[in-house]
């Protein structure tokens, strides 16, 4: 080694670390402790609010809706009876379940057939009474009278304007009990309490033994009751809690699978116990530090930040493998552990730092996102990547000088100045076919871009859950039997106090309702217009022609007054109109789940409302989730452009050449293009999960390029020809790149076992892109580097040794 090389920062740092390992480790431990101490402050949030900044106009509009009309979040329990729900057994269940639902935490209102306010006339008087009478009243009837009454009420329910498709299936075999949560303006309900309470309630009616762990109910196909009764539970509260449940279940499932895969790869690669244990010196502290950092900075644990442990485990292993592969190479050549560690650090310090920085850049590009969990995931994965590098350099490497790791010298070990014959032959072959290789990649890239552009930007909240998740099963089954249980909430401003009693205004609302009812995805609309028309009909001796909005405002006011005076406590109309009677709420129950389709429909509804002369605004939890789609697109564009720009600058600086730096981006961008193609071919739309793939993969995939090119340049500066330099990189750096890629692919591949579908998509696509990246770096990158075949002198052995030292 020359005197100049001994003055480099890498060499001097390596020398310091191996000479003072205890001081280095002490520094590392103090650094770890400073961040790990934030762990007690780590919180979690799986609510709808976690996605948005508090200043987001969508969130502010929803908060205003809550202040005016209350919460639109609910717990929906469906009772299915193959023999029909209008028999005494099922009616008793509906009554009991309705009463019990009032006891569920944070439930402020319950709607069901047993308390639905049926408006009808009796002896020239308008009567408002429960559709199904009290149990005490029913139990006093003779069997024939009971059957007759229930049959009559079934006919009323079946032919009612509101009940079918809302509380009852058209075939009369399923009934819904809907519990509405109290408002949580500016905050969120405690979904864990709500759903734990609701699940305990369902277990009361279940006839099958269930696990003691309530969370296991997340994966029940259904609750089986007595007789022919089965129960299903869904609703917006169930969705929010299921996000948390599947995240916890995924962690419990995937972490062991990931660790087993890592152990297998490490055993195959190193065949020694020390190589199994040492990587955990990086994994555990860096992961704890990242979570502690989240505690200190206020980032919450949620569905997206839950991916951070898997990412950091894979990255920590990759850092360890680069160090250990090089360390054992030097040990097999006969170097003692201190000298082997010094040479390992000297060779890997700069490349590992640069790859950690490039990976961090990829993750930090998500800080431009509007969706808070994406920002959190990017920041935590980014700082965790740097934490892993610091622990690797300041703890793992000094440990190598102190631990009694025995490695036998191998006489036939490939010397640092030797390139493997297979590598030399491969490079010679690649030199001959470099033009076809480059052209082939060019054609593939054009095809991949074309296919990728055919993809759509879309999401489906319920299809975020795998097919064995109860909330998904329940929702689609209820929709199939009854109708939509998710609502598009439309607030309509009449423009003045008491304006909602104006017949002209109400008739405009009626026209909007009629239009909405004609839409294929709307299964029911609910508004005070229905109550007014029912009341007017009842006051006109049930004349079907009187099912209209009266032309007289005073009459409308009287009908609303008569109706509200007959209502039981807790069943008023405050959730349908504001106290000053200026604004009203129209709920359109929908089966529409695809966000792209939904957002277009929201815009159309607002246009139609304007055409009818109404000042209307779309809000509610359902539109809140769907309108995140625009943020997904914005995040994708901003993050990938920022990541490409910053990584390009990094590569130019690393390689000290604008031409070489920009050229090196070609093999890094190629896998992203192929990833976009695979997304389309695998029918994976651009959503919250897949939007993360591009920037994440760019940051990680460029690691291989950095290792390849920095080591290539070392050989070139030592006088090696292009061909020989590439062969040396393949020989000495290639194994570490291959092992780290396999570990990363295995790490992200474990997401295939997840129950949260965006994580599945993210993991699978990332694994595909990283596999493509190593193939590209092994073929396209050297093909670009080699250039035209030239006659070059072979370097001397001394030059080669100096280049590799």
UniProtKB/TrEMBL annotation:
GO cellular component terms, semicolon-separated: plasma membrane
Q: Which residues form the SSD domain?
A: 280-402, 698-787
Q: What is the protein name stated in its UniProt record?
A: MMPL family transporter
Cell compartments where the protein resides: Cell membrane
The membrane topology term of the UniProt record is: Multi-pass membrane protein
Q: Which Pfam families match?
A: MMPL (PF03176)
Q: Output the superkingdom of the source species.
A: Bacteria
Q: Origin organism of this chain?
A: Acanthopleuribacter pedis
UniProt-listed SUPFAM superfamilies: Multidrug efflux transporter AcrB transmembrane domain (SSF82866)
Where is the chain membrane-spanning?
Answer: 21-42, 253-270, 277-296, 308-328, 349-368, 374-400, 435-453, 636-655, 662-682, 734-756, 762-786
